[in-house]
Each structure stands twice: as structure tokens, then as C-alpha cells.
């Protein structure tokens, strides 16, 4: 595995020429889309890409169209040189770092909306978010042309939205989810964790603990209403402002009354000014 800085592309034609060369050589190409501010969770995606493919391209693009008017686009952490060094350590072959003008040139007017999957959970709290995600990911897939693209399961709704968009649009790429990487105390790795104060950081692992408790209770078919109510109360007592806490069908993301099929326990909550999301399988 190389630990050198990956080849950086900011010109689409150059990127496509390199990918075409790899394909002519019969090499499997894997894409890891990111918004930068990389952490071990992202590096786990690159490592998985190295395992299943021959070439790994990581994109770094802070996508403005998936941020709402009151969200943190301007303060989203950016450190391209550090990100490139981390990608080199993880063994990425290339970094695709397009400018906003490259992704959204003057006159750009197309957006992709995925119905159904976006109507619950984060959807009502982040209007337009998933349209921005689906649009930028579709562009990235068309730009890089990978065989497989990898996404962390921490944002499970995002993963399902992308899988649906790719299936509906007949895009020739496999979308794979990769299990969430966690700190030793259970907190899911996230670029936004750096916004937590030291005091908030000690409280934050309670989020995953409550999800695990609900999953354990729901696994035997117990109705989920009471465990959800108890979990919400526990989170609020710990200082979280809960936007949603739900047990949903893992395919449709529709809420379930009891678990009789693959399901997920999902949560979004503010701790101070920081919005945290997480989920666990049931």
C-alpha cells in the first residue's frame, strides 16, 4: 500500500483519462465520496475500497446544495492538505477535488428528488438536503465512473436514498454500505464531533447506548412504542434535544410497530449546537 499523497485531480477531463487507463488495464475502480474533514471512519471506507478494488478514488467536495439556510456550510471544517495526507496513508490512488463552479456551473438547473425515503426522519428537518445529496452523488458517479461506491452506514437514510436513486436511474454502479466506525465509548465518528465541548463529549456516547438498549428490547418482537418513549426521555434527561427517535423498516424506512423484518433504530438530536445522528441494526 502506498503512503504517498494521492494524485489530485481538479480537472474532470484529466480524471476521466486516468480512470479510462485503469479500466483498459482491467482494474476495478472504487469511489469513496467525502466532504473532507476526514477521520478514521472515512479511512475505513478507503481501506474497504482497497480490499475490494484495485484503484480507489476519494472525492473531497463540501456540497453547498445539501446544507439548509440555517446549517453549517460556512463553518464546516476544511483542511485539504491534511485530508490528502490521510488519504495517502490509507492508500487512496486519487483525490477528486472539484471546485463549486465545476460541480454547479452557471445555468445549472437540474436536481434529483427521491420520493418516499426522504419524507420521514431527517427529511422534514432538512428540507432540500436529500435532493442536494442525490444530485451531487449522481454527478460524482457519472464523473468518476466507478464499479463500486462506498458509503458509511452512520447516515443510513442517505445510504438508502443513494441506493434508490442509482437503481431508479439504472446507473451501472454498485452502492455498498460500510459499518459505522465508533470511538471506544460507542460514539459514531463524525466530522461534527469536533464541535462538541469537553462536557458535551462526555455525554455524547449516551446516544448510541440508548439505541442499543432499544434494539435489544425490540429484537424479540416487543412493541417499540414504550422503548422509544423511554429512550427519548433518557436522552432528554441527559441534555439532548431530540428531533426524532424511531424504529424503521431497513428497506423502506417506514416506522414499524414491532420488529418482524430487518429494521433500524435511528436518531437525530442536538447536543448543544451540534446535531448528531446515529443508527443501529435490529
Automatic annotation (TrEMBL):
Which amino acid positions bind beta-alanine, per UniProt? 66
Superkingdom per UniProt: Bacteria
- Active-site residue list: 42 (proton donor)
Q: Which reaction does it catalyse?
A: (R)-pantoate + beta-alanine + ATP = (R)-pantothenate + AMP + diphosphate + H(+)
Q: What are the binding positions for (R)-pantoate in this chain? A: 66, 158
Compartmental location: Cytoplasm
Q: Which UniProt keywords apply?
A: ATP-binding, Cytoplasm, Ligase, Nucleotide-binding, Pantothenate biosynthesis
Q: What is its EC number?
A: 6.3.2.1
- Binding annotation for ATP: 35-42, 152-155, 181, 189-192
Main subcellular localisation = cytoplasm
Q: Name one GO molecular function term.
A: pantoate-beta-alanine ligase activity
Which InterPro entries does the record cross-reference, listed alphabetically?
Answer: Pantoate_ligase, Pantoate_ligase_C, Rossmann-like_a/b/a_fold
Q: In which pathway does it act?
A: Cofactor biosynthesis; (R)-pantothenate biosynthesis; (R)-pantothenate from (R)-pantoate and beta-alanine: step 1/1
Looking at the keywords, is Nucleotide-binding present? yes
Checking NCBIfam families in the record gives:
panC
Role this protein plays: Catalyzes the condensation of pantoate with beta-alanine in an ATP-dependent reaction via a pantoyl-adenylate intermediate.
The entry's family comment says: Belongs to the pantothenate synthetase family.
Misc: The reaction proceeds by a bi uni uni bi ping pong mechanism.
Query: Can you state the subunit structure given in the record?
Result: Homodimer.
Q: What is this protein called?
A: Pantothenate synthetase
